[in-house]
Each structure stands twice: as C-alpha cells, then as structure tokens.
Amino acid sequence: MKRRMMLVAAMLASVALSSANAARAPRTKNEQTIIFSGGCFWGIQSVFEHTKGVISAVSGYAGGWADHPSYEQVSSGTTGHAESVRVTFDPSQVSLDQLLKVFFTVAHDPTQLNHQGPDVGTQYRSMVIYTNDDQERAVKAYIAQLADAHVYAKPIVTQVVAYKSFYPAEEYHQHYAERHPDQPYIAIYDAPKVANLKKDFPQLYRDVK
After folding, report:
1. Which of 1, 68, 98, 113 sits at a 20 to 30 Å CA gap from 30?
2. Pick from 104, 64, 27, 72: which is nearest to 173 by CA?
3. Please, what is the Cα angle at 37 between 33 and 39, to 5 degrees?
4. Is residue 47 classed exposed, middle or buried when 0-12, 13-18 and 19+ CB atoms within 10 A define those classes?
5. Residue 25 in contact with residue 76, Cβ under 8 Å?
6. How far is residue 55's CA from residue 192's CA, in Å, rounded to a whole number?
7. Centroid of chain to Cα 145
8. How far apart are CA 21 and CA 72, in angstroms?
9. DSSP 205
10. Cα(77)–Cα(58) distance, rounded to whole angstroms?
11. pLDDT tens digit sequence for 35-84
C-alpha cells in the first residue's frame, strides 16, 4: 500500500521518458539480452544500470500470459507476469557469468519464494529468462554450482524460463530509483543493493549520471 501511494505521487511528478529508448532491443551481434526477475523492478534496474558493460536495463513484465499488461494488472497477481528487467549487455565488456554473480549476490535473494523483502506475490518471484541455448546452459550450471557449494542455507527457488515476451513497464517506472533516491522505499530496500554492488564488485561498478 505504501509503495502504491508513493507511486501515485511519482506519476504526477515524473518526467516522461522516450518509449523508443525504453523498449530498445539488441541491434548488433555484439549485444545480448537476458531478463532478470527478483522482486520490485526498481532495485533490479538500478543495480544493472550501475553495472559496467550493460547497455540498457528496462523495467517491464515477463513470464506470464497476458498481452500488454498494466502495472495494476501485474500487481494483482492474475497475469502470470513478474516484475522484470531486460538487460542488454556487451559480452566483450561484461560476461554473463559476471551478471549472474551480480543478480544472485546483490540484486536479490534467490531463496525467497514468491516474495522479496516486503513485496509478496508471484509477481515478485525469482526468475531468469534466457534468450538462447547458451544462456540456458550457463544459468542452470551457475545455479547448480551455487547449490553444490551450499552458498545459501535455504534452497534456491529461481525459475529458469525460455523467453516468450517482454512488455516494457510504464515510463514512470523507468530509472525510478535514480530519479527518486530519497523516497523511503528506495532508500531502505534498493539503495543498499547498489551500495553492495560497489563494495563487492568494484571492478563492475560505474556511476550513473
């Protein structure tokens, strides 16, 4: 409820972004795309925007069956979609393995089933959506390594799913954490993720202007 109230205020005050830029997909063979889901997409997007080698990080909806869903529809938990972030990256600058380390280490907790922090529901589930066979093998192998090494005390519940569709979220959601750094939700739940990225992976961190 608090998050929705803050959203209403943000919608009224937000500066519109370019839909074309928000929906940009890979254009060259030097770019790859993968989709991450792990709770509120504000924090996930912010983490990857601060990751070197990431060309774009777009908040949106994926993993469900509804066409062109709205935020309200996804929040109801009836669309099958999860709040997600489409990450387009340059493999010559950052590897998929490095992105997976960021996702599983600082961006979210992969042991939380259908929730993340204060947000509860299947729309906040942990999920990686791959866009090619190599990514599928890499993601599954990485999760297996984490499980074999007992990195987490609880089982990893992250779903690994093939790409079907991705719908960019409303423009006021894009770059939300960067535009509202003093909002309580961002300060409490999302800013620490970026801080941990800088602390744990300084070679991958970059400032965002």
Report:
1. 68
2. 72
3. 150
4. buried
5. no
6. 22
7. 22
8. 23
9. B
10. 21
11. 999 999 999 999 999 999 999 999 999 999 999 999 999 999 999 999 99
Report whether pLDDT(175) > 90. yes
pLDDT bracket for residue 170 (50, 70, 90):
very high
Look at residue 30 in the predicted model and tell me its pLDDT.
84
Q: Is 91 assigned a catalytic role?
A: no
What is the CA 127 to chain-centroid distance, rounded? 9
Domain ranges of the chain: 28-184
8 A C-beta contact, residue 100 and residue 202: no
Token pair of 166 as six digits: 């991705």
- Tokens at residue 14, please? 């937000």
Task: Identify the active-site residue in 40, 62, 94, 186.
Answer: 40
Contact 17, 171 (CB under 8 A): yes
17: nearest Cα among 69, 46, 59: 59
How far from 35 is each of 59, 125, 139, 160, CA to CA, in Å? 10, 13, 12, 10
Show the 3-state SS of 90-133.
CCCCCCHHHHHHHHHHHHCCCCCCCEECCEECHHHCEEEEECCH
**Number of neighbouring beta carbons within 10 Å of residue 177:** 27
Question: How far, CA to CA in Å, does 102 sit from each of 106, 142, 197?
Answer: 6, 12, 7
Which of 7, 75, 48, 46 has its CA nearest to residue 190? 46
